[in-house]
Specification:
- The protein contains five helices and five strands; from the N terminus they run ααββαβαββα.
- By secondary structure, it is of the alpha+beta class.
- Helix 2 packs antiparallel against helix 4.
């Protein structure tokens, strides 16, 4: 019994970290503007279609997918979330409005990382546009897991 209790006490409670992470993302982005990106089946022309399952409509799915990133058995744990940008029709805009939209989304990402510092979740991160209105943000968790073990 003594060894079992010691093992259970040494396990990290990731559910609290996941809840705190979601709180921080929700404080920066509206619940219908962020969530999990789902990829469609590969089409004949070798492109994928991406869809945002936003936190407002799919909170259980988002919670589950983010929680999966905290499983310490994975070699390179990460959280991958999607952000809906303010982009409208990409063909009817000038370059300056596109640049301003990019600056706004990057400023919000910067604000998010400042908020995450108290959770000891530090970047590295990577992002890419997977559609004209959808950004994929990948946050590396290995530093958090190494620091907490």
């Amino acid at each position: 019994m003594k060894h079992i209790r010691k093992y259970n006490e040494s396990k990290i409670n990731y559910s609290q970290i996941v809840t705190s992470f979601i709180d921080e993302v929700s404080s920066v982005f509206d619940d219908d503007k962020w969530g999990i990106i789902e990829r469609s089946v590969e089409r004949i022309d070798k492109y994928y279609e991406f869809e945002l399952k936003d936190y407002q409509k799919y909170p259980d799915l988002v919670l589950l997918k983010i929680g999966d990133g905290f499983v310490p058995s994975t070699k390179h744990p990460f959280i991958s979330i999607g952000l809906k940008c303010g982009n409208t029709n990409p063909y009817n805009r000038d370059v300056f409005s596109k640049i301003n939209e990019d600056i706004n989304i990057l400023n919000n990402i910067k604000k998010l990382f400042k908020n995450l510092e108290h959770l000891n979740i530090y970047v590295p991160f990577d992002y890419e546009y997977v559609g004209y209105d959808l950004l994929s943000l990948r946050i590396d968790l290995k530093w958090h897991l190494l620091k907490s073990s």
